[in-house]
Specification:
28% helix; five-stranded mixed beta barrel; RND_pump_MFP; Multidrug resistance protein MexA; OB fold (Dihydrolipoamide Acetyltransferase, E2P); Elongation Factor Tu (Ef-tu), domain 3; alpha+beta; MdtA-like_b-barrel; conserved putative lor/sdh protein from methanococcus maripaludis s2 fold; 417 residues; MdtA-like_BSH; elongated; six-stranded mixed sheet; 21 strands; signal
Length: 417
Amino acid sequence: MSSRPVSCRPRSFASLRAWSVPVAAGLALATLSACNQKQAAAPVPGPPPEVTVVTVAPQPIPYVRDLPGRVAPMRIAEVRARVSGLVVRRLFEQGSTVKEGDILYKIDAAPYEVELASAEAALARTEAALVLASQQAERLETLLSRATASQAQYDAAFAAKKQAEAEVAGAKATRDRAKLNLSWTDVRAPISGRIGRALLTEGTLIEQGSAQVLATIQQLDPIYVDITQSVGELNKLRRDLASGELDRLDKDHANAHLIMDDGTLYPLAGRLLFSDVTADPSTGQVTLRVQFPNPHDELFPGMYVRARIKQGIDSDAIAVPQQAIQRTTDGKAEVWVVGADDKVMLQPVEVGPVVGQSWLIRDGLKAGTRVVTEGFQKISTGSTVKPVETGTPAEQAALGKPQDSDETSDLIDVRGR
């Protein structure tokens, strides 16, 4: 058999074109099919994201000033001896509670007992002289009426009687002074309260009129807390009260609480007594004095405390939870609010002081506005959301109020200014 040589010449352009057309058509169909499948697999838009909101409502909130202060005793007395002598006995326990009139020290009374005996003897002598002078004056008065004694004799007898009466009065005063000195050998507590350490011991000789202090007694129940407030703040408070922006508190109600230096709340409320009428020229501050009951001696003079003083009531205050406040790059406050169409937008607000766990809003919100408190990462300006209210309307109206018996939690703390 004869074989035909294989031709290595390229195919003609027509044959290549005939081959490529079906291939291109197939690729186009495959691409179109893939696109249709992708379009069919596109996700369906989901429901709007849920966000937690609170509906703001006006509420009465006490206006409080958080001020530093020092505890001071209601009364303080330095015990001093009123007579000279040797201290022979101490009768009190250091650091104990004493009552007014309790004997604290005994001073050697022997010299004063002798003085009293001498004074009583002198009194008896003058009283005897008065009896004699009185009898002589009576006799001369009778003789004068019978014209058997002269007027001069009678006048002398009458003067002697008056002199004897004066000597008796002087002797009585000396006797009473001796009694008083003897009684002062018992050094007594001038007030009731807690007595400190003894500042001298038995055997100490005390000089009358000496400035030596034997002990110090402080009355601790009730007790004072002296705090300071700037004149500017006090004047602004008075203007707010005068204008009606703040309502006055009932003076008979407790209007102060104490926070101890360890952060705990003192369990008993106090009452603001007065503010000083003179400002400190170096600080521009006025002293306010608050009185607290202290039945268990938990407060000691000199302690540092913080006093929360209710100074008025904002009857229509609006507050939002602290987490609702957002801050711009320049530090201004704003909140996310949900409109009637459930779309969110940023609302600039002016914040005031802290109210428990909330911020007081001075401007920018009105009653009934829904404010977002959770879910910020799900929203953007103009997006639609599903608002979920927090709590019942009654609970919302109590926004900022304490969850327990700590009634200071709902006070306007002006440290937030």
